[in-house]
Amino acid sequence: MTSKAKPLIEIQDVWKTYTMGDNKVHALRGLNLTVYKGEFLAVMGPSGSGKSTAMNMIGVLDRPTTGSIKLDGKDISKFSESGLATLRGKKIGFIFQKFNLINTLSAKENIMLPLIFQGVNAVERERRANELLKLVELEDRQNHKPSELSGGQQQRVAIARALAVNPEVILADEPTGNLDSKTGGTVMDFLKKLHKENGTTIVMVTHDEDTAKVAERVEVLRDGQIIPKSK
Amino acid sequence: MTLIKEYFQIALRSLTRRRLRSWLTMIGIFIGIAAVVSLISLGQGMRSAVYDTFERMGSDKLMITPKTQFGPPGANTGYVPLVESDLDFLEGISGVQAVSGYVMSSARIEFQDSVRYYSVVGIPTEPERLNLIIDIFATDIAKGRNLEPGDTFAAVTGFYHNERGLYAGKNIQLNNKFFINDQKFYLAGVFEPIGSSQDDSMIIIPMDSFRKVTGIEDRIDFIVVQGDEETLNDLADVVTRSLARHQGVNVDDVGFNVQTPEDLLSTLDTILNIVQGVLIGIALISLFVGGIGVMNTMFTSVMERNKEIGIMKAVGAKNSDILYLFLIESGLLGLVGGLIGIFLGVGFAKLVEIISTQALGKTFLVAHFSWGLFLGALAFSFVLGAGAGTLPAVQAAKHKPADTLRDE
After folding, report:
1. In order of start, what are the domains of chain A with their CATH numbers?
2. Torsions phi, psi of B348, nearest 5?
3. Residue extents of the structural domains in chain B
4. Cβ contacts of B405 on chain A, cutoff 8 Å
5. I want to staple B179 with a disulfide (CB 3.0 to 4.6 A). Which of A168, B38, B63, B110 is the partner?
6. Three-point CA angle B390, B394, B396, nearest 5°
7. pLDDT tens profile B106-135
């Protein structure tokens, strides 16, 4: 990534401490990470390295114990919880390992869900959902419930849902973790294409080196910190 | 809240997914609502039936009854009893237009070798007094004729004697002979059904014959005084004081009550209100329990759907969005429960109406339904559901998405 690119998410000296009984667990110990607009970043790390917590921070799902997080130049500590929700809804699209679709809603309704919370009207929601279903090649499955779809299809619905609001960044947490390698490969190809053709910023959290290779930049997380690059 | 339609759709989806649980939860609501709807509609029906009866009696009449609440007519209460000559005395009071009364006793009734005991009522046969007392009975003749001046051993009875096979399965037909305390009478007429077994099995005969067959002299059990509707309350005072003076007792120690139709109506109204109040109170307890059921279900639902809540928050749902979603969901439980309750309540009230009509032989109790009642019941059940769901919904809204999405 060129250094001229604009920073989208800036995480500075972030600590996250959980209290478990009498013990304090430091999930993050001074995390510093900047995500630039338009890049495809992979954050790698073994389990227990603080990946999930880092992902929560990048996705403003949680607030740090100390340290600062800026999204698009705005300090998130200044936002109320509802403000954060709106910010999330507008700027970040999530893709989860377990897809996390809502089981009672059809594929299309799942895609429209973020738009509902953004207050987008029904006609526009419909239009956008159809567009996305076409993009992820699931037009013929639009009325199926998640339980009626294969893992790969579910993940494509989740990608479509993540894209629904035209987010600044797609945040993918082990997006291939629940898929066989072939399907996983398809999903990765799709993310790559999305990045290349649409210039979408993608941050992917994974423990799998092969998956991480797809990204332009790889940062490694260990013990709640990014390991400095030797080269 | 501009997306209320979408919220309803999403809430409805999650309710139909847990269909059995939703139904079970709603049982508490719809039993309560059914009880409230049927009790209120029947109560209204009862009220208008009572008002109708009073309207037929007329609102220009005072009723004088002896103070014998705790015993049969004629029981010794230590008070000066009402006597037949009081009728003549009352007729002399200015403002009194007409006076009548009746006397009542149990008697042995024999028809074709079958013996039963029923209340026999003696009424005056002088034309003016006869008409006034017939007004008070507030019912019409179904067969034959009413008592007439000059009748001696004629009787008019409630329809039970004519239709219910009281005498070893046999009915007394018009002009049939039967015996009251061994005196032969004939059936001159039969009343329309009145609606209580006591009234519908009474036997009415001329006052003179009554005294002859029962041996009861002078006593009178009920006096009706007709006056002017406008000044009826004043007349009630005058009548009380005059009759007390006539009996030679202090006005505070009289052995009778003088009641205006207004008094009677308000007494009946009070009784109806208390009965209805108690019943509706019980129904409300059932609704309260139903509300707890909704709360319980919603708490369970919130716990089960931590992840779903987390997902919604991740894709931009604000705390308020989650709050509304769950409130609408529990409100819908209440609303649908209420809707079913209304149908059940209407059905139950109609059933009571049909059964009472068959039992009494007359349509006395007509359940009164109104849109106000239905809409009120619906609104109440929605608010009850939403109210019971408030705590769970607040709990759901407070969920931190990071907590719910982190677990593997």
Report:
1. 38-50+81-226 (3.40.50.300)
2. -65, -45
3. 4-54+266-406, 68-254
4. 56, 61, 96, 100
5. B110
6. 115
7. 999 999 999 999 999 999 999 999 989 988
